[in-house]
Specification:
By secondary structure, this protein is mainly alpha-helical. It folds into 2 domains: about 5-40; about 95-295, Orthogonal Bundle (MetI-like fold). Helices cover about 75% and strands about 5% of the residues. The protein has 12 helices and 2 strands. A two-stranded antiparallel ribbon has the order 1-2. Helix 5 (about 90-130) runs antiparallel to helix 6, helix 6 (about 140-155) packs across helix 8 and helix 11 runs antiparallel to helix 12.
Length: about 300
């Protein structure tokens, strides 16, 4: 039986049967109409001037990523003023080769931010998840406090954490690592707690019946059973954070985001295309590796 099949009765009970579910769909439809009408009345749905011309021009520049100039760019590109005065001469192959070297360095910084931020988040989330998991019966006050911390961490976006932390620790990767860690802590905590709650408590109770301490119960009864799920969750969030960390450079946290911000601000769509190709390739490679690791855990 699939997960969707299992969830359908619960959904119907929640909505009060088919009639209640239909009412929720109608309510959602009205909400969508209200949002569209509100934006339209405020004039915020405009596409701007010449949207199709701008789109075709942008797509044309995207179609030729800048890294192509490393091999096929002009070796003597002249820049002249309106009256024909020679301003400078540029070797596009050398310029783009230097840019690709900067992209490689920024990619490594982005990967470092995602990796260290994800690890720190997982370490911070684990004790909180143990408190939140209902089947471990933590003291109610501590459980509520831990849940509040995790909820707040998930509610605040990584960029918001980054803006705050840049003001505290300054520009650079440290702010990015901490921003990733604080937001992802909430995601890790929720996933870890759900994994613990899905345990067969018979084994845990058997360990507890021997008089084992809470730490012994966790490491002998809980940890061996949830470790594969924890690793799978860690790989998933780590992959997500690689994508998320690429935009932290927009606020001064370093990495690919800084180069993306520069390319957008200067309308260098060819360079932006190169950067987006690197981001997609990075995510695809990590996704392939994480799939193999998760398959090995099954």
């Amino acid at each position: 039986m699939s997960v969707s099949t299992l969830r359908l009765p619960a959904l119907r009970r929640l909505s009060g049967g088919r009639g209640g579910f239909a009412a929720l769909v109608v309510l959602y439809g009205w909400l969508v109409v209200l949002c569209v009408a509100s934006l339209a009345s405020a004039g915020d749905l405009s596409l701007g001037r010449n949207p199709w011309d701008n789109l075709l021009k942008t797509l044309g520049e995207f179609a030729r990523p800048s890294f192509i100039d490393v091999w096929f760019g002009p070796e003597r590109l002249e820049f002249r003023s309106d009256d024909g005065t020679l301003l400078r001469v540029e070797n596009r192959r050398e310029v783009e080769a230097d840019f690709l070297a900067a992209v490689a360095r920024a990619t490594w910084v982005t990967f470092q931010i995602a990796t260290l931020g994800s690890l720190l988040a997982a370490l911070l989330a684990l004790p909180l998840a143990m408190l939140v998991a209902r089947n471990l019966h933590a003291p109610r006050l501590l459980a509520l406090g831990a849940k509040a911390v995790l909820d707040m961490a998930r509610a605040v976006h990584t960029l918001v954490f980054g803006l705050i932390l840049v003001g505290i620790v300054g520009l650079g990767p440290t702010a990015g690592v901490l921003a990733i860690a604080l937001h992802s802590m909430g995601t890790y905590g929720k996933l870890f707690a759900e994994s613990i709650e899905s345990l067969d408590m018979a084994a845990v109770d058997a360990v507890r019946a021997t008089g084992a301490s809470q730490a012994q119960v966790f490491f002998h009864g809980v940890w061996p059973s949830v470790l594969p799920q924890f690793v799978s969750h860690h790989l998933y969030v780590w992959e997500f954070n690689i994508r998320d960390s690429t935009i932290l450079g927009l606020i001064g946290a370093g990495g690919l985001g800084l180069l993306i911000s520069e390319a957008v601000s200067l309308f260098q769509w060819g360079r932006l295309a190169t950067l987006l190709i690197v981001v997609v390739a990075l995510v695809m490679v990590f996704d392939a590796l994480s799939r193999r690791i998760r398959k090995a855990l099954l």
